[in-house]
Amino acid sequence: MEERITKLLQEVQQFSGAGREAVETFRLKFISKKGAIHSLFDELKKVPAEEKKKVGKILNELKQSAEAKLAALAQALESEQSPGSVPDLTLPPIPNKTGNLHPLTLTRNRIIEIFERLGFNVADGPEIEDDWHNFTALNFPENHPAREMQDTFFVAKNPDVLLRTHTSNVQIRMMTSGKPPFRAIMPGRVYRNEAISARAHCFFHQVEGLYVDRNVGFADLKQTLYHFAKEMFGKDIQIRFRPSFFPFTEPSAEIDITCLICKGAGCNVCKQTGWVEIAGSGMVHPNVLRNCNIDPEEFTGFAFGMGIERVAMLRYQINDLRLFSENDIRFLRQFHTVI
Ligand code: PHE
Question: What is the predicted pLDDT for the residue at 338?
Fold first, then answer.
């Protein structure tokens, strides 16, 4: 019997657990009427008289120790749960984790801010578009290979319904529903059937700009984008215009800036050239103005379009475009303090 008492004493001492259930388990096992200690007291009656004193003493010790343990467990439970317990005001506060804006939203907001100060409005349009607004009105001839420059996701055929491949559809919607002058930028999501890689995705974001008025010239385009690049990337940025082709602009130019990731040394983002393309641009093609019932003899305009992902990659030195859409919280959290 002595052995059993010592073993139980050990069990009591080693018992660990928190919460109401653990306390109750302890009580039932050791203290309750049907518990182990109670039945040992019953057995004590049968212990020979000469041993009774000794065994009784250690049994009492066990009982006291179990009661003390129960009191301690109950106390711990109380202080954990009691709503009235006084909070410790000296503890450091639990930081309040607020969310933060996505790096693409931060970049889009910055782009908008720069152009708004130049007097551009912000315009919006549909992502599901018809062929006319996405292609035909923009001077893409029927069956012309230029349509294949932008691998299109079709939603329906005849009449064609598609996911817009660029935000130029908003230019058309704007010009057909109002009168010049127009000076606006159009941020939004676009879709192209491209293989997903570090540099390309099947959906991405663009900001397109349009300025149509009397006497708008190429110099205005150049100065506007030069101003933008300096505001966005700092006054030391270099910019170059490269002749290019778009059906909806003539002449057309692609705009490159020095690669901010490798500082011109060559990396995977700039395809080892030291330059990265940030925008397409040009003077609005007379056919596009005509398609929108604007007289190209009276009005001229420039347009440009840039990828927000590309600008954000350069701004934050990110070398893989897929990070923007993977929603990895470890990536997104890094923009917490970035404005
Ligand atoms: N819409 C073109 C594209 O997505 C970009 C662009 C816009 C080029 C306006 C010139 C003028 O490729």
Answer: 58
pLDDT of residue 81 exceeding 80: no
Task: Verify that 65 and 200 share a domain, yes or no.
Answer: no
Give the separation between CA 7 and CA 226, rounded to whole angstroms. 85
| 25 falls within a domain | yes
Does residue 339 carry a pLDDT above 60?
Answer: no
pLDDT at 106 over 70: yes
pTM above 0.90, yes or no: no
Q: Pocket of ligand 1, candidates 246, 254, 285, 300: which has the most ligand atoms within 8 Å of its Cβ, to mutate? A: 246
Q: Are residues 145 and 221 in the same domain?
A: yes
- With helix as H, strand as E and coil as C, how does 191-245 read? ECCCCCCCCCCCEEEEEEEEEEECCCCHHHHHHHHHHHHHHHHCCCCCEEEEEEE
Sort strands 239-246 and 161-163 into parallel, antiparallel or unpaired: unpaired
CA of 197 to the centre of ligand 1 (A): 21
pLDDT at 221: 97
d(CA 168, ligand 1 centre) in Å: 7
Are 74 and 126 contained in the same domain? no
Q: How many separate domains does the chain show?
A: 2
Does one domain contain both 54 and 142? no
Q: Give the pLDDT score at 77.
A: 79
Ordered DSSP codes for 105-118: HHHHHHHHHHHHTT
pLDDT digits (tens, 9 = 90+) for 233-251: 998 899 999 999 999 999 9
Domain-located, residue 87: no
Domain range spanning residue 7?
2-80
